[in-house]
Amino acid sequence: MANKVLSDIEIAQAATLQHINKIASKLQIDEDDIELYGRNKAKLPIRLIDEEKIKRSNLILVTALTPTPAGEGKTTTSIGLTEGLNKIGKKTTVVLREPSLGPVFGMKGGAAGGGYSQVVPMEDINLHFTGDFSAIEKANNLLSALIDNNIQSKTKSIGIDPRTIEWKRVMDMNDRSLRDIVIGLGGTANGIPRQDGFNITPASEVMAILCMAENFEDLKKRLGNIYIGLNMNKEPVYAKDLKAQDAMAILLKDAINPNLVQTLEGNPAIIHGGPFANIAQGTNTILATKMGLTLSDYVVTEAGFGADLGAEKFLDIKCVSGGLKPKGLVLVATIRALRHHGGALKEEYNTASVSRVEKGFENLAKHIENMQKFGLNPVVAINAFPTDTEEEIELIKKMCTAKNVKAVVAKGWAEGGNGMTELAQAVVDEIDANTNNFVPLYDWNKSIKEKIEIIAKEIYGADGVDYSKEALTGLNKIEKLGLNHLPVCMAKTQKSFSDDDTLLGRPTGFRVTVREFEFAAGAGFIIPILGKMMRMPGLPATPASEGMTIDNEGRISGLS
Fold first, then answer.
1. 8-130+255-432, what's its fold?
2. Portions of the chain given CATH number 3.40.50.300
3. Beta-strand relationship, 181-183 and 42-43
4. CATH 3.10.410.10 segments of the chain
5. How many other C-beta atoms are found inside a 10 Å radius of the C-beta of residue 541?
6. CA atoms within 13 A on the CB side of 222
7. Of 240, 247, 325, 385, which residue is the catalytic one?
8. pTM surpassing 0.90?
9. Is-catalytic flag, 76?
10. Choice among 42, 63, 66, 74 that is catalytic
11. What pLDDT is recorded for position 108?
C-alpha cells in the first residue's frame, strides 16, 4: 500500500517544535528581551532594531509571475529558501505577513507555507496568533466610534459633515453583507443615521500604517494623519482633530512588536502585519524586515500576488520609505501557471504541454524584464509539482538563460531545505556577484499622473492611462490636500498585467483606466483604483470552513 500523502496540517502537527527561547538564542537574543506567548511564540521589542547591522545584511525579495487563483507558492518558496540558505551555512531568517481569517475560512486557505516548508505553530499563525489583527480592528473601530460620537455630540462637535465621511469599520472575515450598510437607526439615542460599511482588516489603513511605521512616535503621527472627511465648512478633518491618535496607539502598543516563531526545521521566522497586495502594499511591516536584518545575515521576505503588484509596491513604496535596499530577488514560477498563460483551461493545468509553456513564458519574461528595470536580476524558482515534465523544465531553463537569468527547480514543498540548497546557492551567487544595484522606478516628487503612467507603461506594458470623471474629481481633491508628493499604490486585478483579468500572458495594445482614487494620508500613499476592487470579500459557495473539524482534545483538521 502506497504511503499516505500527509496534508499541511498533519505535517505541521507531527513536527517537534523547539521552545521559542531556543529560537531566540539562535539570533543571540536574551530570554529577558522577548515577551513569551506560550512555548512557541514571542514578541520582539522594536528597540532591538539596529540600523548599522541592517546595512551589512542581505535582503532577498521573493515575488512571482502573474498567478492562477490558487497562487504559485511564494510563501512556501520563501520558507523553503530560508531552510536551504541555513543548510548551506548562511544565518537566515524568513520574514512574512500574518494570514487573514477571511481567506483562511474562505477559498484560499492559510498562509503559513505548505508541505515541508512551513512556519509553525501553523494553527496559531493561521488563526488568532498573538492578537495583532484584533488590535488593528479595535484601533480602527475606536476611530469609527469617536467619529459618530462627535457627530452626535451637542457640546463638543467639530462639525463633521456625515455625508463626506470616508472612514469605514473593519472586521477580519469575508462578509459581503457588510459592504454597504446604514447605521444609527432606532431613534436619536442611537446616533445619526448615515450610510457606512465594513472593510476586511487587511484592507484597513490602520494595517497599512502599522506596516509603514518606523517607530512608536511615527505610528502615532501616521494615525493622527488619517483623513476622515470634511467639516461643514468643507475643510479636511483628520483623526488628530478628534485627538484619536494616542488612544489608537495604546491599542497597538503590543501589536507594533514583530512576532517570532520557527520553521519546521527550527530556523527563525518573523511574522508581522498582513495587508493585501491588490489594494494595499502587500508586504510585512518595515519593522519586521528591519528586525530580521538586524538579527541575521540574510533575510528572505515575500510580497503578495505577481511582481506587477506586490514587488512593485515593495520596491517603490516600502523600500524607499524605510531606506531598504534588496540585494537579491527570486521570481517564483510554476509550470501550471505557464500553461495557464499559454491558453490552458483550469482542468488542463496539470496536462503537460510544451507549446503552452513556451507561449506562457511571455508572462514570466515580462516580469523578469520588469525586475531588471529596478536594477535587480532575478533568480527564477520553478516551484515543483508532480505533473511537471523534464521537457517543460528544460525549456524554461533555456528561455531564462537567454534572458541572462538562472532558473532552478525548487522542491521545498516535498523535501524542505534539502530540496532548496541549489536555489539557495544560486541566490547567494547572484548576491556575491555584486551586480545588483536597486533603484526605484520613479521619483516620488513627480506628479501623480506621471507616477501612474510610469507604472502603467513600464510595468504593465500599457499604451497609456485614461481617467474617469470621478477619478479626475478625486485627483483634484488629493492635489488640494497637498498629497501630490506621496507614492502611488496601484489597486488592480492580480490576474493580469492589465486591468482586464481576461487578458492573460503578456497583453499588448491596451490602455488602463483609473476609475477612482482613494488615499491613505496616514500610511503615506495614493491609491489609484483600476477596475472594481473589493475591500470586503465574500465567501465562496463552498467555503473552506466547511471542511474543518476540531476534536475533543482540541486537535484541528482541515486547516491548510
1. Rossmann fold (3.40.50)
2. 8-130+255-432
3. unpaired
4. 448-530
5. 5
6. 24
7. 385
8. yes
9. yes
10. 74
11. 66
Q: Cis ω on the peptide bond leading into residue 121 (within 30° of 0)?
A: yes
> Would you tell me how many other CB atoms lie within 10 Å of the CB of residue 336?
22
Grid cell, residue 255, equals 501589536
Query: Has 413 been annotated as catalytic?
Result: yes
| Long-range CB contacts (within 8 A, 24+) of 145-153 | 146/242, 146/244, 146/247, 147/228, 147/242, 148/183, 148/184, 148/191, 148/192, 150/242, 151/191, 151/192, 151/194, 152/191, 152/192
Grid coordinates 485627538 are at which residue?
243
Which residues belong to CATH 3.30.1510.10 in the chain?
132-251
Q: Which of 129, 413, 519, 525 is catalytic?
A: 413
**What's the grid cell of residue 324?**
531598504
Per-residue cell: 455: 507604472
For residues 87-91, average pLDDT: 98
Calpha distance 315→454 (Å, rounded): 14
Secondary structure class of 145 (helix, strand, coil):
helix
Contact indicator for 420, 410 with CB cutoff of 8 Å? yes
Residues 46 and 44: their CA atoms lie apart, in Å, by 6
Other beta carbons less than 10 A from residue 55's beta carbon: 10
Under DSSP, the state recorded for 421 is H
Is-catalytic flag, 91? no
Q: Which residues pair with 446 in a beta bridge?
A: none
Q: What is the pLDDT of residues 432-485, one digit of tens each?
A: 999 999 999 999 999 999 999 999 999 999 999 999 999 999 999 999 999 999
**542 counts as catalytic:** no
Fold annotation for 448-530: Formyltetrahydrofolate synthetase; domain 3 (3.10.410)
pLDDT (tens digit per residue) in 321-333: 999 999 999 999 9
Q: Is 247 a catalytic residue?
A: no
Please provide the DSSP assignment of 181-246 as one string.
EEES-SSGGG---EEE-EEEGGGSHHHHHHHH-SSHHHHHHHHHT-EEEEBTTS-EEEGGGGT-HH
First to last CA, the chain: 25
Cα–Cα distance measured from residue 413 to residue 486, given in angstroms and rounded to the nearest whole number: 39
Helix/strand/coil percentages in the chain, nearest 5: 40, 20, 40
Quick check: is 339 catalytic?
no
CATH domain 132-251 topology: Domain 2, N(10)-formyltetrahydrofolate synthetase (3.30.1510)
* Residues 6 or more apart in contact with residue 321 via CB below 8 angstroms: 212, 286, 487, 524
Element containing residue 322 per DSSP (H, E): helix 319-322
385 is catalytic: yes
**What percent of the chain is modeled with pLDDT above 90?**
87
| Residue-wise burial string across 174-193, b where 16 or more C-beta atoms lie within 10 A, e elsewhere | beeebbeeebbeeeeeebee
